[in-house]
Amino acid sequence: MVRITDVARRAGVSPSTVSYALSGKRPISAATRRRVEAAMRELGYRPRGEARPVAGGRTNVVALVLSSSADVRVPAVMECVASAVTAARAHGRDVLLVSREGDADGTDGLRHAADAALADALIVTDVRARDPRLPLLRALDRPCVLIGVPAEPDGLTCVDVDVEAAGALCVDHLAGLGHRAVALVGPPSRGPAGRAARGVAAAAARAGLACSAYSCAAAPDAARLTAGRLLRARPAPTAVVVRGERLVELLVGAFDHLGLRVPADVSVVALCPDPPAGAGRLPVTSVTVPSAARGGRAVELLVRHLAGEPVPGVTLLPPRLTRGATTAPPGGGPHRTPGQPSPQARPSR
Fold first, then answer.
1. How far apart are CA 204 and CA 210, in angstroms?
2. How far apart are CA 194 and CA 278, in angstroms?
3. What's the N-to-C CA distance of the chain in angstroms?
4. Are strands 121-124 and 94-98 parallel, antiparallel or unpaired?
5. What is the pLDDT of residue 104?
6. Average pLDDT score over residue span 112-116
7. How far is Cα 49 from Cα 228, in angstroms, rounded to an integer?
8. Fewer CB within 10 Å, N or C, the chain?
9. Angle at the Cα of 24 (from 21 to 29), degrees rounded to 5?
10. How far apart are CA 149 and CA 87, in angstroms?
């Protein structure tokens, strides 16, 4: 099957220029249009709208293009898929899952979904700041919603969780309790983790809090090492924002080993996709980001787009704070000598 990228290569133009020649959305020169039309004739290219099997040019299908990148969190992707399928069914539409094994950057899967002409619209997952799929996405001749926000989202429709606001919400909660020094602890990563760190730092600066950041793998030894570094820091943080449910449990255990009670000596807030089960017997104060809802919101945006309604360029889903027993005002109890046997952890009064 001849693709729009093949036409662009033959005509010596970008895929977006071919798309504009077909749709008329933007003016192009007569000479450029003639080159594009000649390339289409030479290659036997048929615009995708002519190949659609349903009368009226509609298939009532939404293609959901999945990434096979190694660092994709599979449970979050499956939750996103489930919410997209549920929303699509509510609007009388089917969802076509598109995934190519070994397609690390997602370009092959996207080209297949676009060129096969089996869907009215596309949802593209795991979009990064400098995503290699962006030129192709901008050239598509049908509605598309990106899950993830690139560095330059102009002209695109994107939906994502507001991780930066989630980081800020953690700090705002701790500042309201009276904490003056906080730390962010999380596994080494990029993307959303960077946005969370910006939110934490910005909120700490607004509130006049001392703020530090520590990279920590979700492993017992790493958690104990990081807890020791926090204890020796100056100023020592009285509250910690922890990214990831597994790391929360490990870090609380490491604090207990060092003689620090949660929350009497140090408060802990979990920043994670779903509410954590708990650290020991303590229900954890958490700020959750609704990652599962992204698929459903993407479908809603596509339905509005197909109906000719205006849609926002970027939609960020707000975080939610759930107050548990791992946060309290600072100085809520006596400090034990590091290494001293721990009494039963308990929330402050």
1. 7
2. 25
3. 69
4. unpaired
5. 61
6. 69
7. 62
8. C
9. 55
10. 21
Encode 26-51: b = buried (16+ Cβ within 10 Å), e = exposed: eeeeeebbebbbebbeeeebeebeee
pLDDT at position 204 is 97
36 phi and psi angles, rounded to 5 deg: -65, -45
CA distances from 106 to 55, 64, 122, 126 (A): 30, 12, 13, 9
Are 238 and 179 spatial neighbours (Cβ–Cβ below 8 Å)?
Answer: yes
SS3 assignment, position 261: coil
The CB density around residue 73, as the number of other CB atoms within 10 Å, is 12
Asked whether 186 and 246 are in contact (CB, 8 A), the reply is no
Query: With contact defined as beta carbons under 8 Å apart, do 228 and 256 qualify?
Result: no
A 10 A CB-CB count for 152 gives 10
**For range 308-336, the mean pLDDT:** 84
The pTM is what?
0.71
User: Per the structure block, which two tokens stand in for 254?
Assistant: 């490491």
Residue (of 133, 81, 78) closest to 106 by Cα position: 133
pLDDT digit string, tens, across residues 36-68? 888 888 887 766 544 444 334 567 889 998 876
Kindly report the length of the chain: 349
Per-residue pLDDT of 211-250, as tens digits, reads: 999 999 999 999 999 999 999 999 999 999 999 888 999 9
What CA–CA distance (Å, rounded) separates 95 from 15? 26
| Tokens linked to 46 | 């048929």
Whether residue 243 contacts residue 303, with contact meaning beta carbons closer than 8 Å, is answered with no
- Mean pLDDT (the chain) is 83
